[in-house]
Amino acid sequence: MEDETHARLRLDLAYDGTDFAGWAKQPGLRTVEGVLETALETLLRTTSPRLTVAGRTDTGVHARGQVAHVDVTAAQFEKWGTDSRTRVRKLNGVLKMHGRDVVVHSIEEVPTSFDARFSALRRRYEYRLRGAEAHRDPLTARFTVDLGQSLDLAAIQHASDELLGLNDFTSFCKARERSTSVRELLCFEWSQTPEGVLVARIEADAFCHSMVRALVGAVVAVGSGRITDAELTALREARKRTSQFTVMPAHGLSLEEVAYPAHDELAARAELTRTRRDPGLLL
């Protein structure tokens, strides 16, 4: 930026991920970050609006509760507007020129200690699927996975309960260099809608790459009788990728909420999150 940072702004947004190649900007591909940064460039007349996001969703994944932050100069802050409603109206107006699958709900000034990624306490996702007994619905097909098999919801829930807690989830993550797969799974609850759709609520302090879809695939394998509870536990303890369950399709997944601490705890939370957790501590 040409001028010194004047303010940090938190953006709360939602998007239909169907026609996006994920969040992260990639040359030649339409991404959420790319569309949002292009809109900010137009609005703020800058070539470098750096966005930091709570979670980089994959291709086809949706969000109703995504959070990002951006730093702006004094001149940009004044041009954009000093109240959230004005900022939201202006940015959504520009975003409409790039499609209607991204909407910003609020844009609030936050302390510079706020970090959309590292200050987060936990993230909550939702996964939606239909078993063989449920009627298919073309109006929700973009957001719900249809499976041609019968599923035992009680077995799925029991398997989900067994995965809760602080664990090394390497068996459910795509490996990334210099990263850890130690996460605390706080909630993995299932419910069923009157239409027969199975809905998973999955919450953790953080998730590694493809973890949510792999977890759902693993418990669905139990619910369909492909593997047993004991085999699922053994797979988790093995800490290596396996072909005994299928990573579920992206379009059934949505980021629903990202929770943050009080403002005076933001810096400490970010510092704690950046501390790499050693899998050996779980032994």
Automatic annotation (TrEMBL):
Residues making up the signal peptide according to the UniProt record: none
Active site as annotated: 58
Amino-acid positions noted as binding substrate in the UniProt annotation, renumbered to this chain: 125
GO biological process, one term: tRNA pseudouridine synthesis
Catalytic reactions on record: uridine(38/39/40) in tRNA = pseudouridine(38/39/40) in tRNA
EC number, as in UniProt: 5.4.99.12
Span of domain Pseudouridine synthase I TruA alpha/beta: 159-261
Keyword Isomerase appears in the UniProt entry: yes
Highest taxon listed in the record's lineage: Bacteria
Self-association and partners: Homodimer.
Family recorded in the similarity comment: Belongs to the tRNA pseudouridine synthase TruA family.
HAMAP family referenced in this protein's UniProt entry, alphabetically: TruA
Protein name according to UniProt: tRNA pseudouridine synthase A
Origin species: Leucobacter exalbidus
